[in-house]
Design a protein that fits this description.
mainly alpha
Amino acid sequence: MLAVVLALFFYTMTDILVWQRIFEYHRLVEYADMYHTGWFVSLAGYATIGLILLWGQWKDCLYYLVALVVGAFSGLEDVLYYVLDGRPMPASLPWLSSNPMIGSVTRSGVLTSVFFWVGVLLALYVALYWLERKPQIPSLPDTPPTGGEASAKPQGL
């Protein structure tokens, strides 16, 4: 979970620094499609690095990948964008209108989406890590030990 939080933090900070400080500041919004391609490549890089580091732990890999994608596309990254930048979230976020994970592009709609998807991630976490099957204790054999097995037990001093 820490890896997801860190990846989303740095992913969002990169979004703020590149989009806002370069593209918006220099009025380069006509290059938004190119920017978004780089944004997806960046997300793919975070996902790949996380999967490589967590390789061999299938639950960790699954949770990391799902949580990173949900965090990036559920509206959470957009909320973090404004929180980390110290600006109020606008009343409408129209660039999210084609996102199937977000029902409404209003501030309250995006926040509702974020709470819903964070709830889904918490449920997935519980399902993966807290609801593990407890190992069954092997049953003892029904027949008593025979011959040499009984004599192999150490005798008291």
